[in-house]
Predict the structure of M48 family metalloprotease.
Amino acid sequence: MSWPTFVPALALTALSLVLARRPLPLHPSWSSRLLLVIAVTTAFTAISTITLVAAVFVAGLLPADLVAASVKGRLLIGHGPVNPVMGSAACAMLVVGASRSAWLLWRQHGERLRLADTGVVDDDRPFALALPGPGGGVVVSQGLLRLLSREQMQVVFRHEHSHLRHRHHLYTTAGAIAARLFPPLAAVEAALRLSVERWADEDTAAAVGDRALVAHTIAEVALANPAPSPTWHPALAGSHVLLRVHALLGDAPSTNPIVGPALLSGTGVATSGMASSALQLHHAASLLLI
């Protein structure tokens, strides 16, 4: 298998890791969209490449006459041969990635069923989370109601409603699946989770008009409940608390109406182009349609 086959996936992986570790100075709403695009296109390109490697490897294990009898088989042979270690690793990555993604979706489904139509949970741990879908809404614990003041509870509800209004669960789910299918994207998933939390934080700060109050509320909940959130869904103090509090104690990010859309559009065009070039290199259309 020739090295140009791997170029689009390697280039997008490098770009995604740079953006995850060196975030652009954008409002979190645009950073979230940009990270979502790069996560999805990188995962798509990487998985298509890994699938090709696995298919060529499996084709090489079959009788040559049987494989060469079809157009698809001849296309796969044209991409070969594949090193046995690389081929085995590609097959293992596909199986493990699919299993982890299925488990994630099953876990989310189970949590929605368990917490559906539940406004207040009888739990001493202070937490709040946004539960999307039918029967969803904002779920809070008894411990949180005892911990916070009325003004702080307003912060909590505005934060979680921001998650629901902007459908942040779709962002975090897409990022999580991308990372499970292609583990190098774990850093992008973490950056995306931080970005959607920052988005909800900034929505809340703008609504209540007190950035310090939002910061203190998040910090107080985190200090009272240092253990991880009891569910996977976006929670008030579920992740990146120090970074979020530090950001809230500073100035509000710029809401420039030009820079964010321009960068998002440019990134979308560039990454989609690289993903398309990968499919052309892999002869994906021929393999699927013939």
User: Anything to note?
Assistant: Confidence is low (pLDDT under 50) at residues 285-290. The beta strands are 120-121, 128-131, 137-141. Residues 28-61 form the longest helix (34 residues). Residues 3-289 form one domain.
